[in-house]
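Quality-control log, excerpt.
Job 1 of 2 completed; input and output follow.
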Amino acid sequence: MLIVDDEKTNCKLMELYVLRWGYEPIIFWESKKAYEYLLQTDEPIVACVDWMMPEMDGIEICEKIRKERPDFPIYIILLTAKSGKESLIKGLDAGADDYITKPFDAEELKSRIGAGKRVVDLEKKLIEWDRELENANDALKRSIETIEKDVKAGRAIQNKLLPENNQTILNFKFSHYLEPSLYLSGDFLDYFKINDQFVGFYFIDVSGHGASSAFITILIKSYISSFISKNRRENDNTILDPKNLIRIINKLLLKEKLGKHLTIFYGLIDNINNKLIFSNAGQFPFPILFSHGTTEFLNEKGFPVGLIKNSQYKNYEKDLPKDFTLFLLSDGFLDILPISDLKLQQEFLLSTFLDDSITIDDIPEKFGLESIKEFPDDITCLIIKSGDSDD
């Protein structure tokens, strides 16, 4: 509570009143010092300012303080012997919030100060809320920056877990393309030599996007890598049995209770007998096999992994010609096609891959990926081509 009046008697009287009313008065007899105080204070305040004073009058204080601190809550009540409508308008136009004429009635002054205090208290709360919001925003910004760093680090780790691109294993060349809709992908793939007869590969799509889905891809890679190691160390043949491998992964994923499910296509290429042995757990669109100038879907179906406890999976075999190309695509490709009808989408995919010269580098142009700023879903492609071995 600020009192500004060059008459010390008036100041003393005002001080006695406001003390009685429960306020802590700050007294100034010199208007310029009062103005300097108002420029520096950090606390919202009610100020009773006399109109007629030497150096700076009340009108000048109002005008200057509103100019210098237009947004800071200072509730100014002008005290003056002037009366009349013109004086009232002049005081309010100068920046006063209220106006009371001398000699004033104590109860009227008490009410006007109380009204000013309610306004100031509300503005004080707003300032506190603004500060809290600003602090919360700063904390949120720091958290987002930390998350972004963590996510980028996670993306780097996920990339390192992907197999080497454009890799030839036995007689087959593997190449892949992966573009996540977010920093981290829920799609994943891998390919690897099991022995001199079999090459294994898988293609998975975890439900959802981002970090939680990416974590599942790492978990699945860990599971499958353990079975590769068991085959080499213990002659365990789980890795050579697609349906059994998927059944075990389904059981393990349900046991973890992570609230995620996934689709997976797991295949083995038998280099000696020219066969593809595979099991499909919900992967769609179906893999596309190109050979002898035609394309066809490997349209065997199966339940996704992580949904049903006792899901059963089957192994399928497909004789492979000497020259073939196998294309596996994530369902993110369906989301970016210019057509929405599923049958037409499938026909479009079959016709797109009627060209055995297509490489992984052609995929962005074939599907216009470079013109898309944000992908609605992860975009992943695996291409397997038969050919001479470089191993």
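Job 2 of 2 completed; input and output follow.
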Amino acid sequence: MNIFIRFLMGFTVWFLITGFLQAGQLEKMVICVPVADLRNGMQAVRADVGVPAFFNDMQGQLSQLLMGECILAEPAKDGWLRVVALEQKMWAKNQFYSFTGYIQIHQAVAVKSFPSYNSAISTPWAPVFHKNKKLLELSFGTKVVASKISDEWCKVSLPTGQVGYMHTTDICFTDKLAKQPKKLSGMVTTLAQRFVGSPYVWGGRSAYTPAKKNQITSIDCSSLVNLVFQAIGLRVPRNSLSQFEISERVACGKDLVPGDLLFFAPSIQEVSTISHVGIYLGNGKFVEASGFGGPEAPQESLRTRISLVQDMTGEPIYRLRNGQQCVGGQRRKEYIFFGSLLTSKKLVQKLRDDWLNPHDK
């Protein structure tokens, strides 16, 4: 993501939020479709957009919302809802804001109170069944209210009012995970690799599937991080700069542990120019949703992949320091930064609280 585009995105969010602060009463709602595009105006993604997809393809795209996400909405206008996405934050104007934008009216339903979730989907697309028929599929990272009825099956309640059944292997019960930081690290690296091969989509925040003909799906670099941590019961901000802002700094590459984050920026003088993030796997490797090179780059490189740090920076991980300029590799002349979301018990608990109570923040 280049500096101008990120600035434009930040300004758009700030501008929309300012409008909301002046608006009247907002209604509590939740998303009732598997994926909803969050737009900066009342215009859908073009029908001819395929994957991979970049800023010019996805103009007006802010993010995506998954089924069950909590929102606040103004009264409908021309088939659209102007909403505050309570579960997606970004850093703008020196503070955190919820993403705000527009979704189509059929993509949300009103609720008296927001659900209290206890689980999240941890496979790319998980089927929901009712009476031996598949009702729908839910994307990786979708939060659900689930209860085990056997070793194989869970019962789930959907925002549509329906009750369904899911395989326990598709669901991560998050209530005990926050107390097991070592287990969290391993789960982050395992879950992140489930996205390998997914095409890059600017503003995407869903698991990739070619089966949804009328809905573009997949991820960008920061939504990879956002969804992986969401699946283990921790809510992190939506974009890479915001993820850096909340992370605990790691001084040297040799001190990184699996599950930590690598950030890239074109300028060390302006940390605010951070525009890319990946998840460290260990042994000098990290997983990233790469859009590097844009539409002109080879198609095989424009997807989530496992990369060697040395191929990106020109040096092995153990020689790199936080804030150091890359001397070679694909990210030559950029600067690399290191952060951790899992080493501080206090930070893990805060991210857990945010996951459990997004509407209180």
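Post-run check on job 2. The chain has three domains: 3-113, 119-175, 195-351.
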